[in-house]
Design a protein that fits this description.
This protein is an alpha/beta fold. Helix content is 42%, strand content 16%. It has a seven-stranded parallel beta sheet with strand order 3-2-4-1-5-6-7, with helices on both faces. The longest helix has 29 residues.
């Protein structure tokens, strides 16, 4: 007996419900003036180190909590807590992605009006997270130099669902003979015109430019929301 049509219908219903919750979240975020950034990548791309550095640098100037998704452990949340920013772990069990309802539940005892930025670190996976809107303002897809240059070609959907590509671990580029020009061509082949940032959370290279980018995006979002009102 063929079961594909039934599986497709269930998947459509799940995604449809996720989109409903994500729209409601986005409306709440905009009404509260919090700018939401989500991070997606494969495991080992340096996502948690990058987010820890981001929280550490932003925290003296902004209210910057984070939600972090993982299949089983709370290791990432404990690591991010070193930034002294509020952090919550979302344990997904067997799911290889976060869903909007998980984010909604995790935010129940947080006052969004008291936040400037909210960062959401998705589960390390380049397939599942691409289909799930979390109500974010901007989605960053991380591509580390240690992964090679063809990641965008192998996983085009995640790059197409993101707004910005971030090349991470730039301090290792020479050691692994990373071809940055080829990586940029591959990103543009999949998503023409996509903005690309290059940085190292370890050395700090590119972090100032990245933070300025976030601040500009937040200001524009707030101005747009004020004009809409």
């Amino acid at each position: 007996m063929r079961t594909e049509p039934r599986l497709i219908e269930v998947r459509k219903n799940v995604l449809r419900q996720n989109d409903v919750v994500a729209r409601a979240l986005r409306e709440r975020f905009h009404a509260s003036g919090v700018f939401v950034v989500s991070l997606v990548s494969s495991p080992g791309s340096g996502k948690t180190a990058f987010l820890e550095k981001t929280l550490t640098l932003l925290r003296p100037h902004y209210r910057v909590p984070a939600l972090v998704g993982d299949l089983a452990t709370e290791n990432d949340a404990m690591r991010l807590a070193r930034s002294q920013a509020p952090v919550k772990q979302i344990t997904t069990g067997t799911l290889c992605h976060l869903e909007a309802a998980m984010v909604q539940n995790a935010l129940q005892d947080w006052d969004l009006n008291q936040l400037d930025f909210l960062f959401i670190e998705n589960v390390g996976n380049l397939v599942c997270p691409s289909s799930y809107d979390l109500g974010e303002d901007i989605r960053l897809v991380l591509h580390s130099v240690t992964e090679g240059e063809d990641k965008p070609l192998k996983y085009p959907t995640i790059f197409n669902s993101a707004d910005v590509a971030v090349i991470t671990k730039s301090d290792l580029a020479s050691a692994v003979e990373f071809d940055e020009a080829a990586a940029r061509r591959n990103i543009q082949a999949v998503r023409p015109g996509m903005e690309i940032l290059k940085l190292s959370a370890k050395t700090g290279e590119g972090m100032d430019e990245y933070l300025e980018f976030l601040e500009r995006k937040r200001t524009r979002a707030r101005d747009a929301a004020a004009a809409h009102k």
